[in-house]
Amino acid sequence: MAAIPQPSQPSPIQNSKMTYIKKVAESPGLTSVPSSYAFTSSPNDQAVSDEDPEDSIPIIDFSLLTSGTPDQRSQVIQELGQACKDWGFFKLINHGVPESLTEAMIEGIREFFNLTDEEKREFEGKNLLDPIRCGTSFNTSIEKVFCWRDYLKVVVHPEFHFPNKPAGFSELSLEYCERTREVARELLRAISESLGLEPSYIEKVMNLDKGFQLFNANFYPPCPQPELAMGLPPHSDHGLLSLVTDNGIGGFQLQHNGMWVNVNAIPNSFLVNIADQLEILSNGKYKSILHRAVVNKKVTRISLVMTNGPSLDKIVNPAPELVNNGIDQPAYHGITYKEYFQCQQGNNLDGKGTLDRIRILIV
Fold first, then answer.
1. pLDDT (tens digit per residue) in 210-264
2. What pTM did the predictor assign?
3. Is-contact 227 33, C-beta < 8 A?
4. For the chain, which domains are there?
């Protein structure tokens, strides 16, 4: 297993006297971004485009995977594989999670971030693997410039944890987490097939019965100078597969063919992306893609990201079936998911830097 740099400060990850960005944004008379939130490189330095109708993010109909005819399922698996290869992202429709439940989740997140600072500090957490962590930016213990973002991160599987405020939010979230986890497992079965593996391959090899599922709620309030600030810098996700939804406010951008693309959401859909552990397992056939969150002047954006990963103790390697054919070679060193998670989350958010550290250079 490859050695990998440890987090700069593996235990304390944030200052208990930190100021939430919601409070900063609501400061009376705020007309400019405080220097501690101003990035020297503007989020808009690189070219940004809207989705091109002729080259837009693929749309996958989940219902055809679960209740379509064998021919329809086969066709969707082929489309899914192409989406993973060409984009690393796809929009998922007809997924079976009630729209009313998703809307209630977004409202619950809004109510959580509307709690007083004192109430939110009850859930700050101190370590990366604490089951509940509420904070601001990404990693305030080492950042020189902060992100225009508050967050709530909760470990919801293999054991379910959740804040006890606001009232009823925990029960609602339990149902949402269970439903999205089942969607992710079905997608991973189809992705296994698209790679030429058995449907249950990823499920068994990644030990998904004890898989690490993380609830990530993000709060991006209005910013007086959005061209100087950043909600989240470019990064890839650490798990296998992420399911993203939001409150309908734009701000999610992904990188495609060297350009940043503004993602236009479809109502009651998930934006699904390949994450780093799936890139490793597929030996680079499917790649995790850089994406970021930008902010705006007028309205608050709320997003909810459900990260689905292997069990934390699982050593993730390229699937032997994808490399032991006399042609391909392993492109990544094996590493436990826990070690990978701690490295990525314990340092500055740095594109795909953690993945690059375990990449094998093939001459």
1. 999 999 999 999 999 999 999 999 999 999 999 999 999 999 999 999 999 999 9
2. 0.93
3. no
4. 46-357 (2.60.120.330)
